[in-house]
Amino acid sequence: MFKKIFSRLAGKTPSPRKALQEASLNPDNLKWLEPEENDYGVRILDCREVTTKLISTTTDKTIALKFTSSGQYGGAEYIGEEPKNPQPVPGELKYPYASEAPADGPIYLAQEMEDKWNIFLQEGFLYFTRSWTGDLMIKAAARFEDGFFHVSSIRADPRIIEGDPIYALCVVDYLIKIFPYRVMVPAPIPTHITDRSKIALWLFSTYGRCAHYGTYADTLELGNGNK
Asked: Which of 53, 84, 86, 193 is 20 to 30 A from 168, comparing alpha carbons?
């Protein structure tokens, strides 16, 4: 069951990592697990050999500064902004939320450079931004009522949608489950990526160290999410 209260990270300053650790990309270390072999009931690729061992770093001072200063303004700089060339993502999401609506500000901030996302709540909207660049990738309306956290009117950068609106909705759902709710579920994989090593690297670059598993399956019902 989801935690009912978002984790607040105010006062914690993320810092760039200084080393780059090479992870083994031997496909034999990346195992497909059939539905009966895991707790999720869908076919998943175990990518932990890569996603939990690869370390990110940058020599670009601009990126390092952007990363360490993320959250400085609580996401207020994104108010009224839209993702680049935004496209609608059909569907709505909802999650248990028994507390009062959280105050505007960050609901998740990347703590290490292996964390690829920041999520802000401002004036009734969620802003999903890349932790390294600050690019706004997803914007969605948010409301807290009747014991639920509702997410609707989702608009995303075309790079998130990957030509498949259902996949894009799964991405938004995954980011909400894995970050503010801290529920470990498999990460959505776009269907055009089929090589196991490429999948693992794509999961790491897209989602970060949280992406222990990936799947082509519909993930919306995983992790006691939507009702």
From this structure: 53
